[in-house]
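Hi R.,

Here's the chain you asked about this morning:
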Amino acid sequence: MPQLHCYIPKETANKLHLKAEQAHLSVSKYLAKLIQKDLDNEWPEGFFDLFGSWQGDDLVRLPQGDYEDRETLL
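And the predicted structure, written out as tokens:
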């Protein structure tokens, strides 16, 4: 498994150690989970190629009604 090195401010490192401890994980595992979560948060390949491919009835937004009257704040 590749090993990465980075530099972060001491205050950030302290917060990182605390969060990892609260999650009952080593700092390395905690960072790996954060990175994996971020990398997995992407659109699937070809997702945007589907734009305009709907072949059913036209989508219609029903009337939403009127806005309610609210008190004015200060």
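The first helix runs from residue 10 to 22.

Let me know if you need anything else.
M.
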